[in-house]
Amino acid sequence: MADNVTSLFRTGAHSPSMAALARESGEAGPVDFCIPCNPYFPSPRMMDELTNRLRDIITYYPSSADTITAELCNLLQLPPQCVAMGNGSTELITWIDHLLVRESLAIPVPTFGRWTDQPLETGKRVDMFPLQESNGFALDPAQYIQFIRSRGTRAAVICNPNNPDGGFLPKQTILAFCDALADLDLIVIDESFLEFADAENEPSIVEEAVMRPNVIVLRSLGKNFGLHGVRFGYMVANPGLAGRIRSMLPKWNLNAFAETVVFMLKDYGAEYMESLHMVRRDRLDMARQLSMLPGLTVYPSQGNFLFVRLPVGAEGTVVRDRLLTEHRILVRECGNKIGSSSRFVRLVVRPQEDVRRLVVGLEAVLYGTTRRSAAPVPELATGTGYSSGTAAVDRLVGSTNGQGYPGLAGAANGMVQQPQQLPQQPPQPQPLVAAANGMVGQPQPLTAAQTRGTTGMPGGLTAVAAQGQPQYAQQGFPPQPQAMPQPQPVPQQQPGGWPNTPGASNGAGWPAAGAPNRAG
């Protein structure tokens, strides 16, 4: 049974659905650290209302997409002619590619897979700008612009925050990026996870996008509301761009669940805002707990997930499979994301009791023991000789290990686990890090084929040579904040549905959202 479950991860580029896992295992679904949605919404009160209306929802046709979009725009205080709603962000990405991307598209990697896969499937050139592991996967917009100009790319995408690393750019930096590339055919700012960010009060550029000729903002409902299965998202742009996408969408591309939720939102705004603050609080606590594990590197994130580098000697697919089969915990191993490798996993922010279960599982799989008796893991400060097993990924992997939370590497340096006498007992699953000790000598330098900027990429794939530390050479690109944000107090709930404060709603009476990237 375990082999059947883990084999689901080797049949495609994305994680299997929870329904597929349940069918293969014959059990209830695992604790989900893979699918990045809000664990605190819908509230029990809202879920009870949805349950009571289930028969009507699944029996009758929904209203037209125009009717549902009009209600959403009334909530957002946006003109309907500037909005197009889709059956998930993948539907909108598909039509953006077909209608608005002519020959080439630039995207930083690693990122959400549909931004690389969709244009390749339609014969476009995808210019991939590798994010530097040595710089914590932070995007330098000035270098990205230079890359776009050197490649002659006609469309550019930024995911803010980025998936899977959670990297964030301030609003004014995003606007300066759009200004610098005003001559491109298209700029897409994918704000799929912006709802969970707290680095700025008003980080979205939705209001500015409707005034620009070539900018689309992609936003979410499914992830933010904890309703991935409903499949709904939307885009905002000037009336011309939005109208082109909207004209290609079917009349009933939105289902009755989507309609029901959209019309319910005005009654649950305060509960929704509280759920976001709970996710932000849990993100800080989860990062703190994970960063205490020896050899684990946790990267600062503004999404509802954390990007984690496993200790030297740990292989992500093995960690994923053992966590699932031995501990009923599902994580997102990132070896099939271009620009990443199997040494990285993405972990969705979840309540504290679930995080404690995750930490116990990681201690057992990585070290074979609990934290109090776990042997320290050596942390390498220079290049490693690991391979993801995927040539296209290895060519994009950086030549040095990145820096996560300060002090973790220093605490682990020089403390190598000593070999111990094996007990006389039946063989048990070996901890991954302990199994690697004594088998790895000095770190091996990466070959030319493993560094960025390598020629001979597969058809349609291109890379840029490493640029080192980011240099903000152009005006309008201030350095990004490096410290993790402090938790914000939960605001007083306001009567009358959705909050109407500028800090919570971008001045539009409704909080910022992000587009539901179904597969992560």
From TrEMBL:
Region (Disordered): 472-520
Biased composition (Low complexity): 493-520
Keywords: Aminotransferase, Pyridoxal phosphate, Transferase
Xref: CDD domains: AAT_like
Pfam families, per database record: Aminotran_1_2
Named cofactor requirement(s): pyridoxal 5'-phosphate
Keyword Plastid found: no
Span of the signal peptide: none
Positions of the Aminotransferase class I/classII large domain: 66-359
Keyword Glycosyltransferase attached: no
Biased composition (Pro residues): 478-492
Entries under InterPro entries matching the protein: Aminotransferase_I/II_large, PyrdxlP-dep_Trfase, PyrdxlP-dep_Trfase_major, PyrdxlP-dep_Trfase_small
Highest taxon, organism lineage: Bacteria
Single annotated GO MF: transaminase activity
UniProt protein name: Histidinol-phosphate aminotransferase family protein
Species for this entry: Streptomyces tauricus
